[in-house]
Automatic annotation (TrEMBL):
Transmembrane segments: 34-55
UniProt protein name: Cytochrome oxidase complex assembly protein 1
A Pfam cross-reference name: Coa1
Species whose genome carries this gene: Photorhabdus khanii subsp. guanajuatensis
Keyword list, A-Z: Membrane, Transmembrane, Transmembrane helix
C-alpha cells in the first residue's frame, strides 16, 4: 500500500492537476506520420491540377484544339465530336511551348503536336499537327489543305 501512495504522490496529475507530458502533445505531433501520408497525395494532385490548368489556359493549347476540332480531315479520320484526353504532356513557358495533346473522336484517337515560340508577344508556330493513333500521315493544322 505504501508503494501506491508514493506512486500517486509522484504522479504530476495528482499533485498539480496538470496533464502529463504525453497528454500535452498535440494531435499533430502524435499523428504527424499519418498526417503526411494523407496530405502528400493531396499536394501532388493539387500541383498536377495547377500545371494542367496552366497548360489548358495557354494560347498554343487553345489554338491547337480549335484548329483540330474544325479541320475537316481530322473530323473525317477521328470522327466527331473531338474531345481532349486526360493527360497533356510537354512544357510551356513565357517564350516557348512544346505540347502533346491527346484527342479522341467517335471513330479513333490521336495526338496534337505543338511546337511554338513567342516573339514580341505573339506566338509563332513551327509545328501544329495531328497524328492519328491508327497510323497514317501527319495532318498539318497550319495549312489545312496539305497533309
Amino acid at each position: 500500500m505504501k508503494i501506491k501512495k508514493e506512486w500517486s504522490l509522484s504522479n504530476s496529475d495528482a499533485i498539480t492537476d496538470v496533464p502529463s507530458l504525453s497528454e500535452k502533445r498535440s494531435w499533430v505531433v502524435r499523428k504527424w506520420k499519418w498526417l503526411i501520408l494523407c496530405l502528400l497525395p493531396l499536394f501532388i494532385v493539387g500541383v498536377f491540377t495547377l500545371v494542367m490548368g496552366s497548360m489548358k489556359s495557354s494560347e498554343p493549347y487553345e489554338k491547337a484544339l480549335s484548329l483540330a476540332q474544325s479541320n475537316p480531315v481530322v473530323k473525317h479520320i477521328l470522327g466527331q465530336p473531338i474531345e481532349v484526353g486526360w493527360f497533356i504532356s510537354g512544357s510551356i513557358s513565357n517564350s516557348s511551348a512544346g505540347l502533346e495533346i491527346p484527342i479522341k473522336g467517335s471513330k479513333s484517337s490521336g495526338t496534337i503536336y505543338v511546337d511554338a515560340d513567342k516573339y514580341s508577344g505573339h506566338w509563332r508556330y513551327k509545328t501544329m499537327a495531328v497524328q492519328p493513333d491508327q497510323g497514317g500521315e501527319l495532318i498539318n493544322l497550319l495549312s489545312p489543305n496539305v497533309k
